[in-house]
Amino acid sequence: MKPKGFFLAISLVCAAPVAAGQGIEDTRAYANQLFASGRYEEALPVFQRIAYFNENKDDPELWLKVADCFLASNDIDRAREYYDHAYYSEKDDSSRTEILFRKVECNLKNLDHRLALVDLLSLDDTPGAWYFRKLNFFLGIAWFGCEDFTQSGLCFVKSTPDSTVAAEIRELFANPRKFTRPDPRTASWLSVFFPGVGQFYAGEVGEGLNSLLLSGSLVGLGVLMAYFTSPLDAILTILPWFQRYYQGGMLRAANLAKEKRSAQISSIFDSTLTILSRSANQTGCHPTD
Q: What is the C-alpha to C-alpha distance for residues 63 and 74, in angstroms, rounded to an integer?
């Protein structure tokens, strides 16, 4: 037995007389009180103690509270585990759907977008479903994380009943080049043919001029050295430095393009959430409600 598991077992056994004397329901009431006051770290071991002594192992409310405590403690893996327990213990379809959404939140928080999609795509995406807007809001986030921006935009549009807000979101996602430009490979290849051009392409004029002047200066210095001394001296002295800055310029151009594209994508995502949040504040209804 691992030390952590050993000490947990000891604490549970030692707590047996307390649990027996206090009663499961009294202990649950105390744990719920801690939970309601936001004292999740204190509530967690009490809920776990209840689960240990509880004869009813199919207790979705209990598993849900344990999962919520783990989530509040940022223990995503344990939270997902107990959301699964709650999901399979719950018999009511609406409650099962809500539990699944909480598990999806864990996956999204952990950047496991594909795992989130697996759960979300198992739900019925019909306009008549009560959770339609919430489902499409989470689908929009998950598809965005998977870099399927077309699907993401469509889902975000479905997540709002406001036609004006939907039009704003369509406008954000209308130009697919925002998500693919500048291309790091293109920036790198441009720098292969002419140092500094890749940086210009990435929108970094200062970086491009720096690379161009530095590479040009080394070439000029090499030509002068070859003329006044010998070509071999120029090759041995200047070529290693030129090669270093030439290759560095290629890598730098690719990184600059990647950073700029990532910044553009992040800006679109932030703008989308801002638009949806503004709409929610005006209507008093958020898709995650």
A: 16
